Structure formats: C-alpha cells, structure tokens
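Handout, section B. The chain below has 490 residues.
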Amino acid sequence: MQTHDGDRCPDESLDPQNWEAFRQLAHGALDEAISYVQQVRETPVWQPVPENVKHRLKEPLPLTPQGIENTYCDFRELILPYPTGNIHPRFWGWVHGTGLATGILSEMLSAAMNSNCGGRDHGALYVERTVIDWCRHIIGYPSEASGVLVSGTSMGSVIGLAVARNARAGCDVRAEGIRCAPKALVTYASKEAHSSVGKALELLGLGHASLRKIAVDEKRAIRPEALLEAIKEDRQAGREPFCVVGCAGTVNTGAIDDLAALAKICRDERLWFHVDGAFGALCALSDSLRPLIRGIELSDSIAFDFHKWLYVQYDAGCVLVRDRQLHSNAFATRPDYLRHLDRGLAGGGEWFTDFGPELSRSFRALKVWFALKEHGTRRFGEMIEKNCRQARYLARLIEADPRLELLAEPTLNIVCFRYRPPGANGEDVDQLNRDIVADLQERGMAAPSTTRLNGKVAIRVAIVNHRSRREDFDLLARSVVEVGNQRTSG
C-alpha cells in the first residue's frame, strides 16, 4: 500500500519524545536565565554583534529537525551575549524598562498556558479584567470606564485616538471612512509630544498635517493660551478641532503639561482629551509625585506602559477610555464564528477584541498581575521616587564639573547634558557628544542615548531602572569626562 507523506506519523505531535530529557534541559535553561540576570552588573552593558555571528544568523530555512539541544546551544552562543542591554544597571538609553527577575517566571507560565486573550471564558481574561480595574484605581478613572492591555503606549494612543475620531467626526466613520467627515479634523499636542501621536493620526487616515504642534513654555510644557489661539484659528478657517493630547512626561526631558488646565480647555471647547502617559502616568503610584500629574483623572482616554516604570518585561501597555460605550462602538464586531453565548467557552461576558483591533492577544496581564501582587504599589512608588532622586543627583554632579553642561533641570527622571570642551564651536561639540555616547556604548561602560535640546546635541539619561545605584551615576559622569578628554586631547 502506498504511503503518503501525511501518513508517516499520523498520531505524533510536536511535543518532546523524551519528556525527562526536555525537563532537564529546561531546568538548566531556567538556572542559566536566573544567573544571567543575577550577574548582569558584571557584564558589559552592550556590545556589538560580531560580523561572523551576523553571518551565522543568516542561515537558510531549516527543512529538517536540528533538535532542542542544538537550538539552545545556538541561542547561548549567537544571541544571548548580544542583548539591547536594558536589564543592566547602567542602561539609560531612550526609555527602556529593566524587567523583573520574577518576570522570568510569569513569562514562562504564560507561555505554558498559551492563552488567547481576545475573548471567550477562561482564567486569563479575568486576570486582565482585574488588572484593568487596578489601573482605573491608580489613574482615578470611574469604575465603569473600559480598558484593554496593548503592546505599549504607541498602540494605546492609536486606540484612544480612534475612539475620539469616531466619536467626534460627525458621521459614521466605521461605515464610510474618514472622508465622510464634514470638516477636516484637527488634533493638538505640544512640540515636545512623542512621534507616535503623529503616526497614530496617519494610521487613522487623518494625516500628519492634521496635528498642530503647540509652543511650549520654559519648562517645556504646552502653553494653554497658544492652544486656545490655535483652536480659534482652525475654527475660523472651517476646520474641526476634535482632540488635545496632553503629555505626562515628554520623551526628551520628562516635562509634564498642565493636565488640569488642558482638561478644562477640552471641556469648555468640547474636545476629546487624551493623555500620553507612557511613563509619567505611573507617578500616580507616588504620593509625592502624584500632584505633578493632577488632572490626569479628568482625561477621556489615557495610554501608558507597564514595561517602563512598572519595570515588567516587554511588551505591556494599557489604554483606558472613560466612556465604555464609545470605546466599544469603535471596535466591536461579532460575525457568526465569534458569536457570544450565554454558556460554555463562548461566554464569559465582554471580550477584549471588542475594545481594540486584535482578536489574537497574548496573556500580557499575567506579568503585570505578578508584579503588582509581589511588590505592591507602594514599593513601585518608592522605586519611581528613587529614579527621580537619582536624576537630581546626576544633575548636581554635572553642575559640579566645569567640563559638563546641564541643558535642562530634570522634572522627573530624565537628564540632558553634554561635554563642553573650552574653545570648541557648536557643530564640533555636537559631533563630539555623539562620539562620546557611542564610545560609552561600544566599551560596554554605560548606555545613554542622544537627543537635541535648544539646538544642541545632548547626552540623554532616562532612568527607568530599578537596578541603578548612585555609584553608577558617579561612573557615568566620570566616564563622560574621561572619554571627552581622550577625544579632545587626541
């Protein structure tokens, strides 16, 4: 009898053929992962991927089994030694969170369950609902507000602005598209707002030109009077102002808009108020920092991240929307194959797919649930306060050294400064500071990033790192001067 390829192993699966061997390998991998995090301070912050490793990673598509042992060995040799570096105590580039040691456990358990959190009736959805309820409490939203966990604030802002667009367009956007809007819709944000706001508007069919970037004050917060003038001008020109995006911690300097003032403007002008709270929203966990974000609870929607100042593993963000019905109106759809039933697996109350574009969703809530239950919100508030103290400490180190220049007094956790050799012109100093940052990274000493502030290239230190100590900032300030001196003397 002829055997077809599909009949060769009709009863086999992709599970290990030897479970005990797999168990031993997995236990060893877990031990190595724990040691990797435990000993990270003794390793380089970052190191470039060698050319021979890049070449080996460009391997052809595997057609035959290589086995878990060989695959794991390749991971240890070719991938593990070359991380982004954000779990290291001296990583302060961009706003990359550090992760938690116990996140290894929660991510492993989530992988074992492999839950699809788009909907249906299973434990993972109840965990996510609990996490959303905790988030409402943290931010100060009403109990009837809706929410959904997302990959991060960028996607959260897409969802929040989509709800705003549909609610304020003056037509049925879901049926006819944005072309049905009787007037061109306009969004407002400060010049310091994150680029993801513009991207969200592009994805929503509004275009980058629909974003008005409003001037900021000396603290780099949006100027309310300039916002009001822009709204007036757009209305006079026949356009439709519909949304203001407030910043709870700008990406460049950590500046915070006057959220209470923005909330009042939006209420008076009948505009949607969305807050980009990527990391600053979690100042709500600190009694001393919460006054800085007063008014955040008055927003119509807010997006923020857990993988920044809650330190959980990537990726994990959240969007909350005050009006549950408007949120559902923007996304809910139920074809027959997703029909909700009163009993069985197709039950379970509201499905998260009705509050966002994704039906296939990972169990992100588990690592957040683990983190909050393990440490409690007060402990996270203390860590956030520590990071802000460290920013002020670094600022004082910079001010104490005449070869360094502080470019902005830190509002929260971000410090912008530069090495300033005597007698050098502006462009030379800009390139020098770019080189200093690259040198620090390539030597594995520290990983700040760069930005431009007041027309000057700045060394930017964004501290969302629970492993950092004061000695790390002493080393950074000292190393910037040493590397700068080496380059200028050379």
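Note. The first helix runs from residue 19 to 38. Compare this with the example in section A.
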